[in-house]
Amino acid sequence: QTVVTQEPSFSVSPGGKVTLTCGLNSGSVSTDYYPSWYQQTPGQAPRTLIYSTNTRSSGVPNRFSGSILGNKAVLTITGAQADDECDYYCVLYMGRGISVFGGGTKLTVL
Amino acid sequence: EVQLVESGGGLIQPGGSLRLSCAASGFTVSGNYMSWVRQAPGKGLEWVSVIYSGGSTYYADSVKGRFTISRDNSKNALDLQMDSLRVEDTAVYYCARGQPPATGIGYYFDYWGQGILVTVSS
Asked: In Å, how far is A57's CA from the nearest CA of chain B?
């Protein structure tokens, strides 16, 4: 069974830089999985941040960036702000119509 | 402006059926990939199903054989027929538009509805 892995939680200081990762329980993540990233605050619908590994969605600040680092997709936030404190999810496209979400990372800014 | 509004949620007993609908505006459902994503209380997001613009449908293993995704072109809406519901199907269900990449295959979610709660309980 395919499992997409994310750090359950992460902390960053205001103004700091954080890199969240998205991996696979077996194998490496590449651009062929078209990784995308979503931000969700409690009680709200997700917001699209990044798609196709590194393309920012419309209106997303350029302090959010995506890439492949080693065998994982990563979401990097530079200059973290208080309102970046929320949950972050990655999605990998597995082929044959199937998408799989990671378990999500709860980001704390303190 | 693109908008997605879900309806049809509520409380249902285990083994029962429920039909969700997602009314779209600002674009044509039939010309796009459309998907359902759910989130159990206090849990993460889970992809449920997608229907491609060409009509192909795909499902997560957890719902395959029990859920059916379809389009109502006359209403410009996306539907999800949920049968043989289980307690573990309790979740907020989001409708999302899928967008293929500029090159290649697959899709990502570019617009989301606000979600509708489905509670399966006796």
From this structure: 8
